[in-house]
Amino acid sequence: MMKMPVDISKAALRCETMSTKIKQLTPGKTVAGRWTIQKLLGKGSCGVVFQVVDSKRKGYCAAMKVEYLSPEYDPTLKLEVGVLKKLNGSRDVMKLIDFGKRSNYAYMVTTLFGMDLISLRTKIKRGFNDASVLRVAVFVLSAIKQLHEVGYVHRDIKPGNVMTAGATGRDSRTFCVIDFGMARAYVVESKGKRKLRPRRASILLRGTVRYCSLSVHARNEQSRADDLVAMMYMLVEITLGVPWRDAKDEQIVIKMKKETSIDELFADLPEELKTIYNYLQSLRYQDRPDYFKVYDLLMQAMKRLQINFLDPYEWEDAEMERDSNESGNPEEKNLPVETPLTSPVTISPLVTPSTPSAPSSAPKPAEIGPPVEEINTAVDYDPKELQTKKPLSREELQFLYFPELREKKFREVLLEI
Ligand SMILES: Nc1ncnc2c1ncn2[C@@H]1O[C@H](COP(=O)(O)OP(=O)(O)O)[C@@H](O)[C@H]1O
Ligand SMILES: [Mg+2]
């Protein structure tokens, strides 16, 4: 059966209905005889998300997204489960642990993540600095590429849908994309061959007005490039804030998106972002974005500004956090970012009892991730890092810690379409 696009205002109404209908799901209640609700983590347009604890595994916490089932609404959780199953083979993505249906709701259980970008942005009042925004960009680019490689476009890339992979250790420094409730396949398979799914002529708007591209406003079928354009608006939002952030009317947002020059939009951000944005504007529905080109530009900016993935983020460094929250001279935001290259780095190699100790030239170990054998994380640790005996340079270490961000991964073309 064809799925009808859901109007955004209807989605808000749906969330209301859902909150009242699933009243029986409160802390202490156990779902499917296994998952005991601890607390509410978030509410969105398609679901309510709880933190749950597994009765089969002592102390193991996960996230459970619940969707109220009604003949009035098209279910989206089923689709999200389908996307997560396809993503199962990818690294460093949300893992699907369980899913099922009850008489009036459907649920899915996934790895528990840490903080979303909205919460982090709220902590850093003046907005993220270049060092944070560029790293977030590389992680999100990687997540988007992985989704595209399994044949889907996300269609709702925004700060509320980007989270740290965990609350502590290395997971708290890795960003993942969540919420595949609006994802749509852009690939069709027939007779064993994959082809680009034909565009529909007329569609309703899906996604979020603040972040969607002008092509999406024009009700065109969403493409891979549109996900990346939304990512660019999201990067502006977590730094300076997009100029149309307070506009409520779609027509005003469109006007402002058209009239804001690229220099204005990315004022004060690394200039490489302008090159990326311009490049994305040149892509058509059928074009496969050159993810490596985007990655390369982000990495060029990181090199130019001497940013390393191992540097502390603003929210990890009390002094940086205080500075960024001081209501000082607003022009200070224009100062070049000083990356604390000489200050001690707070990330450490993953250490288990059987692991050789950290190389002496490596940054000092501090907080560590969970032991590898007890993975309760979406992050797949590179086995190589457990075997490394030789001291590694900081540059090498950063990709050993975050293997998904290696150049090769962005050059790789898994899906030709
Ligand atoms: N795996 C998770 N771990 C922790 N919090 C989560 C997780 N998934 C979602 N959340 C929280 O719940 C919010 C809504 O979830 P999301 O999947 O985006 O639902 P919706 O489709 O309704 O927007 C997110 O913005 C986030 O704050
Ligand atoms: Mg969401």
TrEMBL record:
Show the coiled coil region(s): none
Q: What is this protein called?
A: non-specific serine/threonine protein kinase
Instruction: Identify the residues that the record assigns to the Protein kinase domain, covering every copy.
Output: 35-302
Q: Which residues cross the membrane?
A: none
Q: Where is the composition biased (Low complexity)?
A: 348-366
Q: What are the boundaries of the region Disordered?
A: 318-382
Question: Which intervals carry biased composition (Basic and acidic residues)?
Answer: 321-335
* Molecular function terms, GO-annotated: ATP binding; protein serine/threonine kinase activity
UniProt xrefs under InterPro entries: CK1_Ser-Thr_kinase, Kinase-like_dom_sf, Prot_kinase_dom, Ser/Thr_kinase_AS
Originating organism: Caenorhabditis auriculariae
**Pfam families named among the record's database cross-references:** Pkinase
Q: Per the UniProt record, which EC number(s) apply here?
A: 2.7.11.1
